[in-house]
């Protein structure tokens, strides 16, 4: 039997903390008194559990490599632009369901198909028909904010619509695991 007493503090002791304590250990034949620092068993368990979890996270983070499948950046930009323009043609034609189906898996996971259809219709229809679209910039990147690591090309187009003369469309194709460039993001400003 172990009887433990330690000073009560107004605030809980943080995980892994060592408290000043008086511990009285009673075994079947002996009783001894130990003065000094004492770490309650549940703190030791929690500390070991946290250290184990941190170790697992560290090992998994270190073992995950983001290998780029792209060796020719200009060719990647051209392929991504072609894919984006085909996808934009679906949007321009009002074929929103097909645009969702041909988008990147990351895009589909983030936006349900019915929500995409309602959202894009509410944004695009008031702009009217496409008048012109010209590539403004193309930037290759392996890391984007709030997106998983991968191969991306951020494309910006200067676009004119019937009801809005000057707009900037930003479209971000991502190289999907199947080797195809697919749209993972679309914004109109």
Annotated CATH architecture of the largest domain: Roll
3D shape: globular
Individual helix count = 5
Q: Kindly state the number of beta strands.
A: 7
Kindly state the percentage of residues in helix.
Answer: 25-40%
From the N-terminal CA to the C-terminal CA, the straight-line distance is 71 Å
Largest sheet entry: 4 strands, antiparallel
Main sheet strand line-up: 4-5-6-7
Number of domains: 2
SSE arrangement, N to C: EEEHHHHHEEEE
Tell me the CATH superfamily of the largest domain. NTF2-like, domain 1
What is the CATH class of the largest domain? Alpha Beta
- State Rg: 29 Å
According to CATH, the fold-level topology of the largest domain is Nuclear Transport Factor 2, Chain: A
Average pLDDT confidence is: 75
**Share of residues in strands:** 25-35%
The computed structural class is alpha+beta
Which segments are poorly predicted (pLDDT under 50) over 5 or more consecutive residues? 1-39, 49-67
What does this structure look like?
- The chain has two domains: 62 residues, no CATH class; 116 residues, Nuclear Transport Factor 2, Chain: A (Roll).
- The strands form two sheets. The protein has a four-stranded antiparallel beta sheet.
- It is built from five helices and seven strands, in the order E-E-E-H-H-H-H-H-E-E-E-E.
- It is an alpha+beta fold.
- A hairpin with a 4-residue loop joins strand 2 and strand 3.
- 35% of the residues lie in helices and 33% in strands.
- The termini are far apart.
- It is globular.
